[in-house]
Structures are given as structure tokens and as C-alpha cells.
Design a protein that fits this description.
This protein is mainly alpha-helical. The protein has 9 helices and no strands. Helix 8 (125-137) packs antiparallel against helix 9 (141-158).
Length: 168
């Protein structure tokens, strides 16, 4: 937070400089034991950033995560989708969008995002787990079994717990 006054001073002098609102938002989210309105203040910083730089995929992504944490799933998916359009190599945005759609039980809709995310970030066990779950729920048993096996192998290598296939 020592950088916060510096960033505010930069904005005072140069109100339209790209990246500063994004940095302030990230700083606000990194504060330990934040005040209750901190997430809302951070959200506003990311919105302000997008007014200056509408191509900031990171701001869209963080807005998606904030919406997901607030259980505003449609809003979250919208932000994650924008982030992936702005940066087609943004694996975390695809994976978060897919995970959000799985949470909403929109399994068929989740599959393309999860496939893209897993392709971009193949070492992400939760991506494989969510993809396996989505495949299982739409009746793609062989694909689900393969993804659960990949997930379980990753978890065993890392000392984590293996997942059980979802029951249909």
C-alpha cells in the first residue's frame, strides 16, 4: 500500500495514463484484513481502467473473479468472455469461465472454455477436473474418464487427493 499514494499522485497529474487504475485495484485486493468496502473500491478501479484502456484483459479477468466471488455468475462469465476475446492466450480466463459455467450446471456451455483453458495450461489439475465433470454430465464418459485420469495422476504426483468421477 506504500505505492498507493504514488499511484494517486500519478493519476492527479496524468488522469488518463493506462495501467494505474489496474495497479491500484490489484493493490487494494492484496491488502491483508481489508475493510468491507475494499472489493467494491477495487472493482471501481478496474472499471475506471477499462474506460481508459478497453483492451485490458487483466481488468476484465479480475472483474470476472470479483463477480464470481459475489455469486454474480452471468456477470462473471461476461467478463471472462471479454478477457478471452482480448487475449486469446489467457488460460486462466478460459478456466475461470468454464468453472463458473460448471458451477451453474451449464456443462455443455463450459466444455469449449475448459478445453481451450486445458490446452493452454495442461498442467492445471482443476482445469482437468472441471472438464471431466462437464464431460461426465453431458454423457461423454470416455472423455470424462480420460480427464479424471489426468487429474488423478497430477494430484498423486503432487501428493493431493484424487478425484472420484462424477455420478450421472
Amino acid at each position: 500500500t506504500c505505492a498507493l499514494p504514488i499511484y494517486r499522485a500519478i493519476l492527479e497529474k496524468y488522469p488518463n495514463v493506462p495501467g494505474i487504475h489496474f495497479r491500484i485495484g490489484r493493490l487494494l485486493l492484496s491488502v491483508p484484513n481489508p475493510p468491507p468496502d475494499n472489493a467494491e473500491k477495487a472493482k471501481q478501479e478496474f472499471v475506471d481502467e477499462l474506460k481508459i484502456d478497453p483492451s485490458n484483459a487483466g481488468a476484465e479477468y479480475v472483474l470476472g473473479e470479483l463477480a464470481r466471488q459475489a455469486n454474480s455468475y452471468d456477470e462473471a462469465v461476461e467478463h471472462f468472455s471479454k478477457a478471452t476475446k482480448l487475449d486469446p492466450s489467457f488460460a486462466a480466463a478460459y478456466l475461470s469461465m468454464g468453472a463458473t459455467l460448471v458451477t451453474e450446471k451449464k456443462y455443455a456451455e463450459a466444455i469449449p472454455s475448459l478445453e481451450a483453458g486445458v490446452k493452454l495450461q495442461p498442467a492445471n489439475p482443476s482445469g482437468h477436473y472441471n472438464l471431466a465433470t462437464a464431460y461426465s454430465r453431458v454423457g461423454r464418459k470416455a472423455d470424462a474418464d480420460r480427464e479424471f485420469a489426468i487429474h488423478n495422476e497430477m494430484m498423486q504426483r503432487s501428493g493431493g487427493a484424487a478425484a472420484q468421477p462424477a455420478q450421472q
